[in-house]
């Protein structure tokens, strides 16, 4: 199991990076997907 921490400002591509590495969608709420930004921190 790998742990890859991410940090950065809004719109710096953290969710895109996690999606590319894992194939999982890190944005779980419909509001997050609608706005195109992560609101709640999560794990993938």
Automatic annotation (TrEMBL):
PANTHER family: EUKARYOTIC TRANSLATION INITIATION FACTOR 2 SUBUNIT 3 FAMILY MEMBER, EUKARYOTIC TRANSLATION INITIATION FACTOR 2 SUBUNIT 3-RELATED. This is Tr-type G domain-containing protein. Keywords: GTP-binding, Nucleotide-binding, Protein biosynthesis. The keyword Phosphoprotein does not apply. GO terms for biological process: selenocysteine incorporation; selenocysteine metabolic process. One of its GO terms (cellular component) is cytosol. The keyword Nucleotide-binding applies. One of its GO terms (molecular function) is selenocysteine insertion sequence binding.
